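tool=predict chain=A
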Amino acid sequence: MHYWKRILKEMISAIEKNETVQENIDLREAIAELYKVWKFDAISKTIRNCFKRGGFSNQTDDSDFDDEDAILADLKEKWKTVEGNGRITDDATLSDILEVDAELLTASYPTDEEILKFNEQQ
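tool=predict ok
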């Protein structure tokens, strides 16, 4: 959420300055933005929240989720600004942007056959 908040802020800034909105972010820029999130936005509460969402904590206190709800509300407001400006020409929604990598494969496990084949090659 913090990452997308930063990206939308940059989009809005470009729109307000009547500059071209950058449609693609390269890996270097993404890493730079993620560094800023880690350095300035990822407080201990944020990290605890990530562990809870990932199922690595059995704590039932939901007070940490309030921050995420506030960030999402802020993102929705920023999206209205971008959307209302007319600079977004396709049918993209905020949900599309926030879930763009939801289906992205982040880890995989080799099958038994792949392990045997790899061992045979060694």
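Helices lie at 2-16, 27-41, 44-53, 65-84, 94-98, 112-121. The first helix runs from residue 2 to 16.
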